[in-house]
Structures are given as C-alpha cells and as structure tokens.
Design goal:
Layout (H helix, E strand, L loop, with lengths): L2 H8 L8 H11 L3 H10 L5 H14 L19 H11 L5 H8 L3 H8 L9 H5 L3
C-alpha cells in the first residue's frame, strides 16, 4: 500500500476511521482490515490511541483468534506474508532452498519450480504463495 495511494484514499491525518470505511478500503487494496490499520498507523494517519481502539474492536469481534475471519473475508483468503518473506530471503540469498522448503513445508523441487515461475509439480501452490 504505497503512501501516496493511502493518503489519497484515506487522508493524511484522521482522528477516527470506521470499520465500514476500512471494509471498503480492503476491497480497494486487496488486503485485510488489520493490515490497513497497521499501514494507517505506520503513515501516522491515525494515532496510537485510535490504533489501539481499533485492535481492541478486532479482538472483541474475534478477528484475532481462530478462525481469523473478518468482515468481507473472501473464500480461500489466506495470509501469505510469511511465505513471501521466505521466498524473498531465498531470492536475496539470505537462506538456502532447503531452508525455504523447510520453512514453507514443501519440497525443494516445489520451491525451485516457484522461483523459476513455473507451477509447483507436487505441492498445492497456495501452500507457497497463498491464494487470494
């Protein structure tokens, strides 16, 4: 979520933001409401108190405990940040293919296939990159 795009959609400084607006933004940016809230705090769009209040509400709604379902969740929506970070570390040489395979819970051949841009031969590709 680039800063300029966020500022255009949300504004530079807010004293509050409604769940309904976050839900609409979820569909604009294709990320979770919680990720949007984090980004709003990162960009100082909202202050710490607003951020804490929103996450208290997410707790109350049960979004931070299994099954981790929030408003507007799409069928099959899975978090994939960890997987992307593993693949990034592999691409940058910070970890080996075998370590990436271990962290992702797939075979080395599947990691290698994905890194070459081909469909993994044996693993469900959603296990590696998540399915949105």
């Amino acid at each position: 979520m680039p800063a300029e795009a966020m500022w255009l959609e949300v504004g530079k400084h807010r004293s509050a933001i409604a769940l309904g607006e976050l839900l609409a933004l979820k569909h604009v940016f294709g990320v979770s409401i919680q990720a949007l809230t984090h980004r709003c705090r990162d960009l100082d769009i909202i202050n710490k108190a607003t951020y804490r209040a929103l996450f208290n509400e997410f707790d109350r709604l049960g979004w931070r405990t299994e099954p981790f379902e929030e408003y507007g969740a799409m069928p099959g929506e899975l978090p994939n940040r960890f997987n992307r970070l593993c693949l990034r570390a592999l691409a940058e040489g910070a970890i080996s293919e075998s370590k990436a395979a271990e962290l992702l819970g797939v075979g080395i051949a599947d990691v290698d296939d994905y890194m070459r841009g081909t469909q993994p031969s044996t693993a469900d590709p959603s296990r590696i990159v998540g399915r949105q």
